[in-house]
Design goal:
Blueprint lengths: L4 H6 L5 E6 L2 E6 L3 H13 L4 H9 E2 L12 H5 L3 H14 L6 H6 L1
Antiparallel strand pairs: 1-2, 2-3
Amino acid sequence: MTINATQFLALGTAKRTTITVEGAELTVRELSVADRSAVLALRETDPSGVPALVVRLCAINPDGTPMFTSAQDAAIAALRPAIVDAVASAVMRLGGMMTDEADEKKG
């Protein structure tokens, strides 16, 4: 079946999942193409800032709106690494950029 531009763009709705971090549920979405470009650009200039950027871009409220703004970057970066890494890893798995350890062990 051939699709038109509207149908093609509808395919691009970001996948979402809910994860548990420190006992709290958090909804995340996968990176968009624009988000991925921002992450790759930051990786070139400030690799240590990438996980916090991924959290800001992909942590969302239940209604799909962004949870954080760029004004909160420093606060996100000040969180414990385990929290930021858990969110960033979930986003990467959701977008197919990283596999689950269980999947890797299955071989």
